[in-house]
Amino acid sequence: MASIKELNDRLTKQPYVSGYTPSADDAKLFNEIFGDNVNVVQWAARMATYYPSERSKMKPIPVESEDSSEIDYDD
Length: 75
Description:
By secondary structure, this protein is mainly α. It contains 5 helices and no strands.
């Protein structure tokens, strides 16, 4: 898969990379995209439970600890 857009386009036609059943291709691509970043996968799954209209209305929450204020989201 050359890009996320191409993957997205393919997944509009079928639920998995190679068709209608999960395969080694899906596992390989999943690992290429997410690696060992289990927390990112869990966060994405949780965020996906909200409709786009709900996500657009989410408000910022004040940062309470120094640790979370040091997160660099550009990495």
